[in-house]
Specification:
Elements: H1 17-21, H2 34-41, H3 48-62, E1 70-76, H4 94-102, E2 104-106, E3 109-110, H5 116-125, H6 149-155, E4 159-164, H7 189-195, E5 202-207, H8 219-224, H9 242-272, E6 278-284, H10 299-302, E7 303-304, E8 307-309, E9 321-323, E10 327-328, H11 331-340, H12 354-357, E11 372-376, E12 392-396, E13 400-405, E14 418-420, E15 423-424, H13 432-439, H14 447-454, E16 460-464, H15 482-498, H16 502-505, H17 510-513, E17 523-524, H18 529-535
Parallel strand pairs: 1-5, 1-6, 2-9, 3-10, 4-5
Antiparallel strand pairs: 2-8, 3-7, 6-8, 11-12, 12-13, 13-16, 14-15, 14-17
Helix pairs in contact: 2-15
């Protein structure tokens, strides 16, 4: 079963019998058993796209445009599950709270990959990143033969567009596309609405660059937003020091700026009388840009906020629900298509969230959504001197997180002697929290935290979320958890094989060879002395 990593034999405690019975072996992606999906996936032949386009055109002719909903997708850049409605101390997000309270809040939403380009590619295509060729990597391209939902909606009569950050960063033309996969670019939402053909339904992507560090974190914005660093909660994988508290406070301020701007979009819709028949979605491309967060498969990198509100369809008991189904951000592509009445391409493995949105149930709604599949390929292309990535696959259940690191001999955040746009360890964004860990790497109280973010990791990781919600204590080698580890490893392998992951087919090295479309390089440097001592480098 485990062709890549030998699983050692340990005794199985009886206490996990209930856990073993809790998995039906059915796929989150399809609702079928993983083995049965392979044939379904192979049915998409060369003529399928033409058929899809014809069917979409038929829908646009047959449907009354006035009945089809608009779609407003507000997509943050590096926002984790930090909001006032989630109970996060020190932050206020009234717009997200409004949408979540009137609509549906998905508390177990996960991004397909914790890296901007592939995460956005997964949302646009409704597919896991390993099916996107070079699109699995940061600063890549998205091949034109892979259908994306904005094109399908446009063919069905929708007016589509985006502002700021759509599919990015990368080279659109290298994949054979003539425009961004998110659609044509507009200065802002107001300009888009002005140019929309009268009466046409729309699908608009508001691609904020908050709270990405490149937008600019500042004490001035933090004070403007009324955020007190003393009120923030520092997770245990980061040092609880003033530098980190201020960094988190600056991040919160950027989140609040995003929330404020989304509120302005809703105001525009209300003023135009179009909010009622608009599907409003607020989410993020992955979690926060802190060590052990972004570009990692821990919850701090993959767990995202998600709220969906369709006012016309969500009166009464349908609004204000909290759903605990495991959902992928890529499911949004299928959701948008179903809401618009557009057929879903066979290539698209995502499952629409519309049945959950239109339900009156909360908690667990669809039984097959019992876990999320997670993936990472190459993040920063110059974090290692050979240009390679750090490939990982994972499965997240209610109680456990299991990860398989395909190249455990590599440094997970980048080489300690390679410096590029984010300094050393360039898979982790530069910032005060990262710098504090580097500067104090060998301090007795900091070194364990430094190693969690930048030290090498074993081939397998397993975390018991009931006792370790921040995933800091790896139990993969614990004999008491052998049964859990093997069971999750088996589910993960079956899913990856059924979904034709090159890492399972022996062709995964291709991800390391795809071009990295940037204009900068890297340099070899001497690691700082605290880093040398912490990592015991010669």
């Amino acid at each position: 079963m485990n062709r890549f990593f030998p699983l050692h034999l340990f005794r199985v405690p009886q206490t996990f019998n209930g856990f073993l019975r809790s998995f039906p072996g059915r796929s989150v992606r399809s609702g079928q058993g993983p083995r049965q999906k392979r044939r379904a996936l192979s049915l998409a032949g060369p003529g399928s796209l033409a058929l899809i386009a014809w069917m979409a055109g038929a829908v646009s002719l047959a449907a009354d445009d006035a009945d089809r909903p608009n779609i407003l997708f507000a997509f943050a850049d590096d926002w984790g599950v930090h909001s006032s409605i989630h109970g996060t101390p020190g932050i206020e997000t009234p717009t997200f709270d409004r949408v979540a309270e009137a609509g549906v809040r998905f508390d177990r939403a996960f991004i397909d990959a914790p890296s901007c380009t592939p995460a956005r590619g997964a949302v646009l295509t409704g597919q896991p990143i390993w099916r996107l060729g070079p699109g699995a990597n940061l600063h890549s391209t998205l091949p034109a033969e892979i259908p994306v939902y904005p094109d399908l909606l446009e063919e069905a009569g929708y007016s589509v567009g985006y502002t700021r950050k759509g599919w990015a960063p990368g080279n659109v033309g290298a994949g054979g596309r003539e425009r961004n996969p998110a659609g044509p670019s507009f200065d802002d939402f107001a300009a888009f609405l002005e140019e929309r053909p009268e009466g046409a339904p729309f699908a608009f992507w508001f691609g904020s660059q908050d709270p990405h560090r490149s937008r600019g974190y500042s004490a001035d914005l933090r004070r403007e937003m009324g955020i007190d660093p003393d009120e923030v909660e520092v997770p245990p994988y980061l040092p609880d020091v003033d530098e980190v508290r201020r960094d988190i406070g600056n991040y919160f301020a950027s989140v609040q700026r995003f929330d404020r701007e989304v509120g302005e979009l809703l105001d525009l819709l209300e003023a135009a009388g179009e909010l009622e028949n608009t599907v409003v979605v607020i989410s993020s491309d992955h979690s926060w840009p802190f060590p052990r967060g972004k570009s990692n498969l821990y919850d701090a990198g993959t767990h995202i906020p998600l709220a969906i509100w369709w006012p016309e369809r969500m009166s009464g008991d349908r609004g204000g629900r909290v759903v605990t189904d495991f959902v992928h951000a890529s499911d949004l592509a299928a959701t948008f298509l179903e809401a618009a009445g557009v057929p879903q391409p066979r290539e698209m493995t995502a499952r629409s969230l519309l049945p959950i949105v239109e339900s009156e149930r909360e908690g667990r709604v669809q039984g097959f959504r019992s876990y999320a599949l997670l993936a990472k390929e190459r993040h920063h292309g110059h974090s290692r001197r050979d240009g390679s990535g750090y490939p990982i696959r994972g499965i997240r259940t209610e109680d456990f997180l299991y990860l398989r690191n395909f190249e455990p001999d590599r440094w997970p955040a980048g080489d300690p002697d390679v410096s590029s746009s984010q300094g050393i360890f360039s898979d982790t964004d530069a910032g005060p929290s990262k710098q504090y860990l580097i500067d104090h790497a060998d301090a007795p109280d900091v070194q364990p935290l430094f190693l969690l973010s930048f030290g090498k990791r074993p081939a397998e990781e397993l975390y018991d979320l009931r006792n370790d919600p921040y995933q800091m204590n790896n139990l993969a080698g614990d004999p008491a958890y052998r049964a859990v580890r093997e069971h999750l490893a088996g589910i993960l392998e079956n899913e990856l094989e059924a979904l034709e992951d090159p890492r399972m087919l022996g062709t995964g090295d291709a991800f390391d060879r795809y071009p990295y479309h940037v204009g900068y390089g890297f340099e070899i440097v001497e690691p700082p002395e605290p880093v040398r001592r912490a990592l015991e480098l010669e």
